[in-house]
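hey m, so remember when u said the tokens were messed up on ur end? i reran from scratch. heres the input so u can diff it against urs
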Amino acid sequence: MPQIQQVGEITAVLCCGLFSGAALYINLVEHPARMEAGTQLAVAEFGPSYRRGARMQAFLAIFGSLSAGLVWIRAGSVAWLCGAVLFFSGVPFTLLAILSTNKQLLDSSLDRSSERARTLLVRWGRLHAVRTVVSLAAFILFLWLIVVSGK
């Protein structure tokens, strides 16, 4: 039975680490480079990047959160539940706060070289940074829980 818990712990840490690492890369490297290339090119690149990233990050967030939830159920540790909720909170945040901006950036009627497009890209970067910070917090919590349980 402890093996199931360990698999859940490793899976949660792995999924959260991959998610937060990818999110951090997007905020520190990809999005600034996109913006540096100019608004028109940034909007053009946003679509393919978003479609690929959304699939990967949705899978990692859901699977990782479920794994952390499994650990909570098996071990009874409220800290794992908190980590699961914190990590999963990126999903509703995306749907409630970021999705509208995504849809506007993907709208074919958007003038890709307009000030509105640039404003949407800047807003998207800020909203994505929130998701990055939250996922990093969950990752740090999961790592701490692994270290504490190994003592």
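this time it looks ok to me. The chain has a mean pLDDT of 95. if urs says something different then somethings off w ur setup not the seq
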